[in-house]
């Protein structure tokens, strides 16, 4: 195989990987959208019944659970925790806004 064939093959493999990455990114976006639809409903339920927007014990359980899952799947548990913390902060912000709206701003 000459260098041109090798580069052509590498470009084909790269294109295949990128197509898979694009599919995974799309799936992640759809999954996050579904997750946030659910957490919006949780926020409405909490606001309706005067429950606090945040649940530190639930968050701690989720962090431990996702760190275990990350470790089992060979993903950096620190990355998984950072990602979850980012998502949870956004969820809490939404819940606080829902509660504020429910209570007249």
UniProtKB/TrEMBL annotation:
Chorismate mutase domain: residues covered: 8-99
Signal peptide, first to last residue: none
Keywords: Isomerase
Catalytic class of the enzyme: isomerase
PROSITE patterns documented for this protein: CHORISMATE_MUT_2
Domain of life, source organism: Bacteria
An annotated Gene Ontology molecular function: chorismate mutase activity
Any Pfam family hit: CM_2
NCBIfam families, A to Z: CM_mono_cladeE, PRK09239.1
Protein name listed in UniProt: chorismate mutase
Annotated organism of origin: Aquamicrobium soli
